[in-house]
Predict the 3D structure of the following.
Amino acid sequence: MTTQDLHSSLLDSLTFASARTQAEALAAGRVSAVDLLEHALARISQFDNDLNAVVVRNDEGARAAAREADAALARGERGPLLGVPITVKESFDVAGFVTTSGNPDHANNVAEQDSLAVAALRAAGAVIVGKSNVPLALADLQSYNAIYGVSNNPWDATRTPGGSSGGSAAALAAGYVALELGTDIGGSIRIPAHFNGVYGHKPTAGLVAMRGTGVPSGRLADRDLSVAGPLARTASDLELALDLLVNLEPLAAKAWKATLPPARHVQLKDFRVLVIDEWPGSARSLHEALVVERVVERLRTQGAKVSRPSELPSGLLPDLTASHRVYRSLLGSSLASPPALSKAAQKRLEALAADDDSADAAWLRAPTLRHSDWLQDNERRVALRHRWERLFETFDVVVTPVAPLPAFRHDHSEPKDARTYPVEFEDGTREVPFFDLFHWAGLPVLPGLPATSFPVGLDDNGLPVSAQAVGPYLEDRTTIAFAQLLEEVYGGFIAPPGFSAGPATGASRP
């Protein structure tokens, strides 16, 4: 084998490697940052006409950053991500790049400086390759918009990679980069991670600074409920990135510093796990059953203590239905300038009974919610966080599905809130409304709890499936460690067919 062949083989071996492994190879001098970047750019050029995951690029800027990383490595400098190529969600400001959040009204919005989160990853040595696709206004479970077009799932290009961090998850699964940066308010990290078979972490609310995300630029106040967090192909990379992303808010840093507690356990057999796979008032889908039963089998094999809601004392588990109503209320009122309701939604709003206390009613009323009503919902949110804290005296993590279905086929019909999706149940396939796909994703958002989405293999159709681990407030390391321990025993990320590390012909379309 020639020296060139050996070098090519090394780059191929790093294609689906973790960011940690890539950083170690760079630090050891086994590969240069320039070569690793060129390998990433070549894969994007090879596959992204089909996937359309990375939609904003500055190759020459990335090459300059890679050369600087190589010079730093040659001087003996080291950093957690020194020379490692990454991409970030389009809604994050990156100096010199456009930030639009998929909205044509902001097509000329060039960022003057990095967002706080991007700056932290760059300071750790990361080479910013580009930005990944999103839905319009980050408000969909699919990633498409009038500026950048449609992103496809590397497991099946007829299906969505999810949203709103859909391009992020697709870029990871396709082997472009090893680390991504996303945001999550309704599963926007965890659902794309699930649809693509990668890992995603929604941090505890307020832990990661959001300044420099979204449009219009220059906002100082964070959007309520929204968080920023990492996506990766390994659980350990989630923790690596999280450590870099905390304590970034300049004003708070003058006096306050978050020191996250260590993971509660270092062995699966010591975990006390509450498993929930059926939303109150809804039948369990076949997908939900598959995901949870697979996790339960693995946990019991490893000696973990697994419990179900039916075994709990009355009142220990918070009321999920009531919580979801509050979530929908605060979610719908979280925008300073909310979009107008569709004509169909406006009619439903006008027809609501005064005593309708459903989640759908809360969503319809949310854009015009009185501040006094918002304060009451906020009080319920804080009380709910304390309810979960009591539950976590008995359990270490709560495991649920991420969604009631795997990646679904593209559906761009309007209005969005009228869309339905085929979900399989024991008695057949039913069309499930758009907003009923968010029960599991919303569960940890309202109380601000950490949640880690982790892959658990493939379903009978060859699509990735994942579960999520929800943990106690500020105990992010516990959910990530739980996912990592399962990964160590049972494996995690699987590369999609057609995206091998060597020469390939294009995206897989099963």
